[in-house]
Amino acid sequence: MAILVNGSTRVLVQGITGREGRARAKLMRDYGTKVVAGCTPGRGGESVDGTPVYDTVLEALETTGRIDASVIFVPAPLVKDAALESIAAGIPLTVLVGDRVPVWDVMEIARAAERRGVDFLGPNTLGVLSVGKGVLGMIGGRAESARSWFRPGGVGVASRSGGMTSSTGYYLCRAGIGLTTLVHVGGDGIIGLPLPAVARLFQGDPETRCIALFGEIGGSQEERVAEMIASSEVSKPVVAFIGGRAATKGVRFSHAGAIVEGGRGTHEGKVAALREAGATVVDAFDALPAAVAKVLEG
Questions:
Q1: Which one of 3, 115, 215, 234 has the largest count of C-beta atoms within 10 Å of its C-beta?
Q2: Residue 187: which CATH number?
Q3: What pTM, to 2 d.p., does this model score?
Q4: Are strands 152-159 and 179-184 parallel, antiparallel or unpaired?
């Protein structure tokens, strides 16, 4: 199995007629993802590399019969309307790739998703990749690269950094450790599926034996994962690296969601919480593969 995307996931691409949407839809298809439809208002009836385009999400859903996930490639000011359309149609997962989405828009998206009982990933996410099965978004780049970098196995990767999602998976695989799914939760302060939600999904995935986590300063996602470990809600081993050790109060580290404010979200606090809960936390990123291997052997 895998989480969020697998070989049978049927995918809609909103904004497929744009430059980015067209290119990324092709990359997803090349990896084996079932891209069954695209959506761009006013462009219905067209086709992009063989994928039919519809004016609305609802029209695409009614015509194709089933859509499991929508990936949105539109400019930030248009993300809210696109996401609300996907959510209103009941698409189970909406992936918001774009960055600089206004925080008030994300809050409205979150309220709509909660009311409809569906999920969204991002914004400001590279997406999710289940090894050998499918990709939503931009992780892995070209299909040939993704296939050569990532091998199947029993480790799930969850990360707050886009680049480090791929890097974590790459170095684990170079060490002979295979993966189930890689998830970049997004770099903004408010996101749809944070690390705790992803950890819960990995906990329920029978193929995932261990969770490799790349965390950062700011927010409380890592502390909430620690609480889940302490309460046995997450019983699978967690191996983590927390970036931003050198950052000081008020200094932003890499992403909008990675900033220490009011003494909260510190590197020390996150490391301590995870270790006290029973997770393995490494002090250097390059120590992560060996730590994961040791956990798997035990």
A1: 215
A2: 3.40.50.261
A3: 0.95
A4: parallel
